[in-house]
Design brief:
Blueprint (H helix, E strand, L loop, with lengths): L1 E4 L6 E7 L2 E7 L39 H4 L1 H31 L7 H32 L17 H18 L5 H13 L1 H10 L6 H6 L9 E3 L16 E6 L8 H8 L1 E5 L19 E5 L11 E3 L4 E3 L6 E3 L5 E4 L11 E3 L5 E3 L11 H4 L1
Antiparallel strand pairs: 1-2, 2-3, 4-5, 5-6, 6-7, 8-9, 9-10, 10-11, 12-13
Helix pairs in contact: 2-3, 2-5, 2-6, 3-5
Length: 374
């Protein structure tokens, strides 16, 4: 509320805010005050409120027809371009599949890698660009082109609103020409079906080509295979393994094979020596160790991380990835963590020269347990 003197006569004018508008009241008189209207909202003294005119909605700009709207011949030409792009997308997807089969990868020949990558990439690029450019060109030149305003509404509409939505979909179908333009519709459906096929083929090829259980059961360990140090491949004498020590072990000859890393991922072993009286061995496994020396797979049965931490005092093996803990004194049974089964044990003995050798391979698959459940 603001009050102003208008002269010596004591004229006064008062402005108040009422119902969003400004009202003014004035009177003349010597020394008299003017009270215009009471307000339910407090107004700071010395201020006046002026309400400006509301913003006028300028509306939408006038619609400009495209050439395809005015010329049926141009409309037909645009339609041909769209389905040609969709068919090009199908051709690109088929080309990617053909290139993947026609240029098999040979690790020893870098040229096969280059050809496979080049033609596979060209095919996938053509497949994606064809469907993308075709969809944009369709929307720009053939679908309804005038501007629309859609007001917001509550999430769950009334039955009338839902019926209206169905009507809108039908109207959209008519405006886009999806149901009417058969060549565009069919070519688009074909492109959408063909585009993911190269990805499916590539991802499928990443999986194992053989039965995982069988692949993990077959390691380089066999009867009489010498235990050697990792990574040098030096044979290990039983007398070299002292109480409390741990050896990282690989089978003899692993460094000489072509797929060394793959074989090592399955055959890596940890070798430890405990007091024979500390081992709680099952009767059927009593001869799997030699004078307190035991060997267990280094591959954790949770997700396949290397179990590389050995606690001398407790005789526990710890996987650093998810803290699965195995008790060496009880056939590496799980005592903590997410692993679900013990580490596979490698039966060992010594040969005539005193070197540690395996009696045979593992009696169960090494590595994560989910392979057994697949």
């Amino acid at each position: 509320m603001a009050q102003h003197d208008t002269g010596a006569a004591g004229d006064a004018e008062q402005a108040v805010v009422k119902d969003g508008s400004v009202e003014r009241a004035g009177s003349t008189g010597q020394g008299s005050g003017v009270v215009a209207h009471s307000s339910s909202r407090a107004v700071s003294p010395g201020t006046a409120v002026e309400v400006s005119d509301a913003f006028v909605n300028p509306g939408l700009p006038p619609h400009r027809e495209r050439i395809t709207d005015r010329d049926p011949k141009k409309d037909k030409e645009a339609e041909r371009r769209v389905y040609t792009l969709f068919y090009a997308s199908i051709i690109g997807s088929v080309l990617a599949i053909a290139a993947y089969a026609a240029f098999p990868l040979d690790p020893s020949d870098i040229q096969t890698v280059r050809l496979n990558t080049a033609f596979l990439g060209l095919g996938i690029a053509l497949g994606l660009l064809g469907i993308g450019i075709g969809a944009v060109y369709w929307a720009k030149n053939l679908m309804r082109g005038d501007e629309l305003v859609e007001m917001r509404h509550v999430t769950r509409g009334t039955d009338e609103t839902r019926a209206k939505a169905v009507e809108v979909f039908k109207q959209g179908n008519e405006e886009s020409g999806f149901g009417r333009r058969a060549l565009i519709r069919n070519s688009l459906i074909g492109a959408l079906i063909a585009t993911p096929i190269p990805a499916i083929l590539l991802f499928r090829d990443l999986g194992p080509t053989t039965d995982p259980v069988q692949a993990l059961e077959e390691t380089m360990w066999g009867e009489g295979t010498v235990l050697t140090r990792d990574p040098t491949g030096t044979p290990i004498l039983a007398s070299e393994v002292t109480l409390g020590s741990v050896f990282h072990v690989i089978p003899e000859g692993l460094n000489d094979v072509e797929d060394r890393l793959e074989q090592k991922a399955k055959a890596a072993v940890l070798l430890m020596r405990l007091k024979p009286e500390d081992l709680n061995e099952l009767p059927e496994r009593a001869d799997w160790s030699y004078d307190g020396i035991v060997a267990y797979s280094k591959i954790c049965t949770h997700v396949g991380c290397p179990v590389a931490l050995y606690e001398q005092q407790t005789h526990h093996l710890l996987c650093p990835c998810h803290q699965s803990t195995f008790d060496v004194t009880n056939h590496c049974e799980v005592i903590f963590g997410p692993a679900k089964r013990p580490l596979p044990q490698l039966p060992i003995t010594v040969n005539a020269d005193g070197y540690l050798v395996s009696q045979r391979g593992f009696d169960e698959p090494v590595g994560p347990s989910f392979w057994e459940r697949s």
